[in-house]
Structure formats: C-alpha cells, structure tokens
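Summary for the steering committee. One of the milestones for this cycle was to obtain a three-dimensional model of the protein with fe (ii) ion bound, which we needed before selecting residues for the alanine scan. The sequence and ligand used are listed below.
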Amino acid sequence: MNLTAEQIQENWNELMEYINEYISEPRKEKLLEFYSTYQERLALMPAAHKKEYHNAFPGGYVEHVLRVIRCALKQAELWESEGADMSTFTVEELVFSALNHDLGKMGSEDEDSYISQTDNWRREKLGEEYMFNTKVQFASVPDRGLFMLQSHNIPYTFNEMVAIQTHDGLYDKANEKYLMGYMVEQKPRTSLPFILHQADLMAARIEFEREWLPRLKENKQPLDAKKTNFTLGNKNTIQSKNKALGTIKSEGLKNMLDNL
Ligand SMILES: [Fe+2]
C-alpha cells in the first residue's frame, strides 16, 4: 500500500489535531514543538522496515499511530461499558500513550532507525525497502521513545510510562514483570496498559490484513516485490508535484514522495 502526498499531509494534520484537542498545557506546547521539529522524519516514516510486518511504506508510521489512537478511544468505551474503573486514568493519558507508544521507532536525535535499503537483492527478492540504520545504538522501542520525550523536557505520568513501556503486551518478555505478577499488589492498578495493547494489536492486525489478505486470496506470491513495492527514488529526479507537502525541505524526502 502507498499513500499519496496529500494523504500523508492530511494524516499529519490529524495527528496535530489530536494533540491540540487532548493534551493540556504546558506540555501541549512542548509536544507540538517536538513534533514540528521532527515533522519531516515522522511524517514520512514507515511503521516497520519489512513488508511482512505492518505499514512498511512512507507515511505508514503516522497512519498506524492514528489508528491506534482511534482504536484506544473506542476500546476505552468498550471497557467502560463492561464495568472497568475509568477513574484510574485520564483520556489525556490514553491519547498521550497512544500518540507516543511507537515514538522510539524514529531512532536517535540525528539518525532514522529505518533507512533506504542499499542491498538490491534484498530489495527485489525480499521486498525490503528499508533496513536498520546501524548508526543508531540499540534500545527497545519503548525505552527509546521515553528517552526522546524526557530529552525534550516533555513530562509523562506514571500511567503513561507503564502503558508505553508495556504496549506490546506479553509479545515482549520484558513486560512479564508488569503483566504477569501473581501478587495483587504487583498488578497494574489501571486498565490503561491493556487498553493500549489491545488498540495496538488491533491496528497492526488490520494493517496486516489490508496488505496481505487480498494477495493471499488471489494466491499471489506474498513477496512479489517488484510489482508491489514503491521506490525511494534517485536524487537526480527532483520534481515539484508535492504541493501538499510544501513544508518538507529535504530534497531526499521530496524525491521519496515524487515516487509514491
Ligand atoms: Fe504500534
């Protein structure tokens, strides 16, 4: 799946609207400043580096985050309707956690985690348009995301920290200490982590289905890379059709959009 430049711009605007609507001052201003600083990188990031995962295309990250926010708000209603104690967290905490749950995927201050694949064999045979940037030191996605927030003086609550940290649920063994405690005192005292995990799981599954089920139904080769991939383009073919993304300054990123 590919997004047009207009869709990428609309998704970005929608993301900013969630911050404006749900995040209170003083951190709203800090968050808007952070997202504005990294707009070019975040707006064009994929949500994953492999097509077998989910939303591995330019703009896939923001599209995924928006879906997680929507699913989290809907999941919260479902939990409430079944009797969950909603006084244990706020809607702001829910939206803040969903908004930033995968922020660690962006990489470091200066380097993207996912960069254009340089191995043509992997690109053509395996459909890998991205690869990990080895300049970025290892850290888990939640750890890196929380580090980025604190590096920019964006405070987060205890609830938000635990929710972001455990958003992968028990798919990440590191979360067992939070989610598999047998003592009552050790269990989370809010349903927020479970709601966020369900929202993320739901979003990623839907994104997987959208990408792969039609092809599996048609009995196509899952990795028919040449026919389905976008290209990241070459820097000598700058065009000016990305009016919707006039705020993007980087020529490399403009090229990427020209090839969508
Ligand atoms: Fe996610």
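Key point for the committee: Confidence is low (pLDDT under 50) at residues 225-244.
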